[in-house]
Structure formats: C-alpha cells, structure tokens
Amino acid sequence: MTEVTQPALTIDALGKKCPIPIIMLAEQINYVPLNAVVAVLADDPAAYNDVPAWCRLKSHRHVGSYELPGGGWAIHVRRNY
C-alpha cells in the first residue's frame, strides 16, 4: 500500500494529447513546495507511461497512478528539487 498524499496542485489535462500534460506539469511543478505532490489528470493513454518516464528523466518521484471514475488517471508526482 502506497501513501496517497493530498496534492498541493492538480493539473487538469483531461482531453489533451501528449505531450501537453507533460508540458503543463513541467511548467507548473516549480510552483509547489519541495516534496509536495502534483496530480496530473489525464486520459491520453500515452500520459500513463510518459509522465512516469518524465519523472525518471527529471529526477522527480512518480508516487502512483490512480484510475479516475470517469476514465483516465490522476498521476501523482512528488517534487524532489
């Protein structure tokens, strides 16, 4: 069981194709405090893999991806720096 932290920021990228969700995340992650969680709401299947891959590339932490009731995911990212 992983911890589910209340996100400090939620980015609504539902209906947007990759790479838009990642661009939105990259633009906004520095607005949250260190170790805070950003939730990216996305329904493009590419985002499910691309956001965690971006986290590895940028050394942020992919906390988890949670299915949304209406389709898509809330992809939680913890800011590491």
TrEMBL record:
<feature type="domain" description="UPF0033">
    <location>
        <begin position="11"/>
        <end position="35"/>
    </location>
</feature>
<comment type="similarity">
    <text>Belongs to the sulfur carrier protein TusA family.</text>
</comment>
<dbReference type="Pfam" id="PF01206">
    <property type="entry name" value="TusA"/>
</dbReference>
<protein>
    <submittedName>
        <fullName>Sulfurtransferase TusA family protein</fullName>
    </submittedName>
</protein>
<dbReference type="InterPro" id="IPR001455">
    <property type="entry name" value="TusA-like"/>
</dbReference>
<keyword id="KW-0808">Transferase</keyword>
<dbReference type="InterPro" id="IPR036868">
    <property type="entry name" value="TusA-like_sf"/>
</dbReference>
<dbReference type="GO" id="GO:0016740">
    <property type="term" value="F:transferase activity"/>
</dbReference>
